[in-house]
Predict the structure.
Amino acid sequence: AQTVTQSQPEMSVQEAETVTLSCTYDTSENNYYLFWYKQPPSRQMILVIRQEAYKQQNATENRFSVNFQKAAKSFSLKISDSQLGDTAMYFCAFMTASNYGGSQGNLIFGKGTKLSVKP
Amino acid sequence: DGGITQSPKYLFRKEGQNVTLSCEQNLNHDAMYWYRQDPGQGLRLIYYSQIVNDFQKGDIAEGYSVSREKKESFPLTVTSAQKNPTAFYLCASSMWDSSSYEQYFGPGTRLTVT
């Protein structure tokens, strides 16, 4: 069974600084997807960034980037120039890919990291 | 606007009563999902459906039931058999092909059972 571990229950960062959130996962699959979701106090789950396991290049979305280390089964999220609006729970998630591409069903989530951005 | 709606935002029920949570999407997505979130926990899958009139159990299906009579709708019933029903429930949807796999989430329903 696949598992996702986020070892940092809480983190804080000063506004405008950079922070890195850690995520490790365990799987025997070779083809899968990884995601970071953000859940602000409104509790709406928002997709931040995604990574396909077959791609060696790390995904980036504006101030958000990942460090994907497939052999180490590590998928960390770096937030640059942190903003007050980045304050939220951040969840790392894993999804097995089907043999023809696309999804294989459910997302498997870590327990989350609560990030506080301080002014 | 395309999106996923869940209603109501807050729901209160007495123990022993069944309750149905609504989830509607107008994204023309094939697949729909129900997740449960407890304090300090990530989301856990209850049920999912790839196509109309078909659905599969997730990791924590006991005490829950679903139906998928229309592509747009995937209601979740929390039965009296669910031992700890108080939780935050999130519905999601996605395509079910190689073109797209991201799941998009609704705003959630907070269920409190006393």
About this structure: The mean pLDDT of chain B is 91. DSSP finds no helices and eleven strands in chain B. The CA atoms of residues 65 and 77 of chain B lie 5 Å apart.
